[in-house]
Write a structure and sequence with these properties.
This protein is mainly alpha-helical. The chain has seven helices and no strands. Helix 4 runs antiparallel to helix 7.
């Protein structure tokens, strides 16, 4: 069972996705709320596991990886998952003052964490449909691209509403987050020999 703060945060993240700025009141934007928001990482883990399992199954089917690399694949995926959740918050914490986001930093991270949980659900649904053969790869890629677009706009909106920054800053932060995620994922894959 989810605690009331978690339910409220998930409700708020869903309402923000629908464009309701007043949903910011659903979040605990205190320091305690900041640490509690990383619970979203645990709640999103099953959805990430579905994505990883389908991806691994497709790689095995295409003979891109062999069965001996199962443990390395799982370790790399788990490491990438954790690093992806903590890298940008840590980096922003280091440079919050220089970026002029000290005041909104906690709110931004809280809302982003819960938003990531909300976005993980349709991603896992697409992976399941693809894995069970109900979607072609092309259709799955099209849907994933659409979700990526929604996610970018969602993040843009969160930046504007929590950090109070302009479009240029929002675009730069989104781009930096995407690049950081891609680079770290590639580094982690290489570390695990993938």
């Amino acid at each position: 069972m989810l605690d009331p703060a978690t339910r409220s945060s998930i409700r708020g993240a869903t309402q923000l996705l629908l464009g309701r700025r007043e949903a910011l009141s659903e979040f605990d934007l205190s320091v305690d709320g900041f640490w509690h928001s990383f619970r979203a990482m645990l709640l999103a883990l099953p959805f990430a596991a579905i994505n990883a399992a389908v991806q691994h199954g497709m790689l095995l089917a295409d003979s891109i990886v062999d069965n001996g690399s199962d443990a390395a694949f799982i370790a790399a995926q788990l490491t990438d998952y954790v690093v992806d959740w903590v890298a940008m918050p840590a980096l922003l914490a280091l440079f919050a003052s220089q970026l002029g986001i000290t005041r909104g930093y906690v709110a931004y991270i809280v809302v982003c964490n819960w938003a990531r949980l909300v976005l993980s659900v349709p991603l896992a649904a697409i992976a399941l449909l693809l894995g069970f053969g109900f979607l072609s790869i092309e259709m799955a890629q099209l849907l994933l691209l659409a979700i990526l677009g929604v996610g970018i706009f969602y993040n843009y909106r969160i930046i504007r509403w929590t950090l109070g920054k302009g479009a240029g800053f929002a675009a730069a932060l989104i781009a930096a987050d995407l690049v950081l995620s891609i680079v770290l994922s590639q580094v982690i894959d290489r570390l695990f020999g993938l």
